[in-house]
Design a protein that fits this description.
single chain; 100 residues; alpha+beta; two-stranded antiparallel sheet
Protein backbone atom coordinates (compact mmCIF):
# COMPACT_ATOMS: atom_id res chain seq x y z
CA UNK A 1 0.00 0.00 0.00
CA UNK A 2 1.75 3.10 -1.23
CA UNK A 3 0.83 6.76 -1.18
CA UNK A 4 -2.60 7.51 -2.48
CA UNK A 5 -4.05 4.17 -1.40
CA UNK A 6 -7.62 4.65 -0.23
CA UNK A 7 -9.57 2.20 1.85
CA UNK A 8 -13.31 2.52 1.86
CA UNK A 9 -15.08 1.22 4.92
CA UNK A 10 -18.66 0.10 4.53
CA UNK A 11 -20.84 1.19 7.37
CA UNK A 12 -23.43 -1.19 8.71
CA UNK A 13 -26.90 -0.58 7.36
CA UNK A 14 -28.31 -0.69 10.88
CA UNK A 15 -26.41 2.32 12.22
CA UNK A 16 -28.58 4.59 14.27
CA UNK A 17 -29.39 8.19 13.41
CA UNK A 18 -29.64 10.74 16.21
CA UNK A 19 -32.91 12.50 16.74
CA UNK A 20 -32.91 16.24 16.15
CA UNK A 21 -33.32 16.81 19.89
CA UNK A 22 -30.34 14.56 20.69
CA UNK A 23 -28.18 16.26 18.03
CA UNK A 24 -29.05 19.69 19.39
CA UNK A 25 -28.35 18.57 22.97
CA UNK A 26 -24.91 17.14 22.14
CA UNK A 27 -24.04 20.22 20.06
CA UNK A 28 -25.01 22.57 22.90
CA UNK A 29 -22.93 20.48 25.32
CA UNK A 30 -19.88 20.58 23.03
CA UNK A 31 -20.13 24.34 22.51
CA UNK A 32 -20.58 24.83 26.25
CA UNK A 33 -17.42 22.81 26.98
CA UNK A 34 -15.41 24.71 24.37
CA UNK A 35 -16.61 28.06 25.72
CA UNK A 36 -15.82 26.96 29.27
CA UNK A 37 -12.23 26.15 28.29
CA UNK A 38 -11.76 29.81 27.39
CA UNK A 39 -13.71 31.24 30.31
CA UNK A 40 -16.61 32.37 28.13
CA UNK A 41 -20.29 32.38 29.01
CA UNK A 42 -22.74 31.57 26.26
CA UNK A 43 -25.79 33.80 25.83
CA UNK A 44 -28.52 31.16 25.35
CA UNK A 45 -30.92 33.80 24.01
CA UNK A 46 -28.72 34.10 20.91
CA UNK A 47 -28.88 30.38 20.03
CA UNK A 48 -29.81 29.78 16.40
CA UNK A 49 -30.33 26.36 14.87
CA UNK A 50 -31.23 25.18 11.42
CA UNK A 51 -31.97 21.59 10.43
CA UNK A 52 -31.67 20.76 6.73
CA UNK A 53 -32.12 17.59 4.73
CA UNK A 54 -28.91 15.66 4.24
CA UNK A 55 -27.62 15.31 0.69
CA UNK A 56 -24.70 13.26 -0.54
CA UNK A 57 -21.83 14.25 -2.79
CA UNK A 58 -23.86 13.40 -5.88
CA UNK A 59 -27.02 15.04 -4.51
CA UNK A 60 -28.47 11.74 -3.38
CA UNK A 61 -30.93 11.98 -0.51
CA UNK A 62 -30.89 9.26 2.17
CA UNK A 63 -34.23 8.09 3.51
CA UNK A 64 -32.99 7.05 6.94
CA UNK A 65 -33.67 10.35 8.72
CA UNK A 66 -30.19 11.90 8.46
CA UNK A 67 -29.97 15.68 8.55
CA UNK A 68 -27.46 18.54 8.78
CA UNK A 69 -27.54 20.85 11.79
CA UNK A 70 -26.15 24.37 11.75
CA UNK A 71 -25.95 25.81 15.26
CA UNK A 72 -24.58 29.13 16.49
CA UNK A 73 -24.47 31.12 19.72
CA UNK A 74 -22.87 34.35 20.85
CA UNK A 75 -20.80 35.29 23.84
CA UNK A 76 -19.61 38.63 25.15
CA UNK A 77 -15.87 39.03 24.97
CA UNK A 78 -14.09 42.29 25.80
CA UNK A 79 -11.88 43.51 22.95
CA UNK A 80 -8.62 43.14 24.85
CA UNK A 81 -9.40 39.44 25.50
CA UNK A 82 -10.48 38.63 21.94
CA UNK A 83 -7.10 37.43 20.65
CA UNK A 84 -6.26 35.59 23.87
CA UNK A 85 -9.48 33.60 23.68
CA UNK A 86 -9.52 32.89 19.95
CA UNK A 87 -5.88 32.00 19.21
CA UNK A 88 -6.02 28.62 21.03
CA UNK A 89 -9.33 27.82 19.33
CA UNK A 90 -7.87 28.56 15.91
CA UNK A 91 -4.86 26.31 16.65
CA UNK A 92 -7.22 23.55 17.75
CA UNK A 93 -9.30 23.94 14.57
CA UNK A 94 -6.19 23.77 12.37
CA UNK A 95 -5.00 20.59 14.08
CA UNK A 96 -8.47 19.11 13.59
CA UNK A 97 -8.41 20.08 9.91
CA UNK A 98 -11.29 22.54 10.30
CA UNK A 99 -9.52 25.83 9.90
CA UNK A 100 -7.45 27.74 7.35
Amino acid sequence: MGPGFLTRVRRPESRSVKTKAAAEHSTRALIGRLAGQYGLRIDDKTARKEFRDCFGRNHEHPDDGRFDLTYSVRSRLPGEQHGKALRPRRRWARRAGAGP
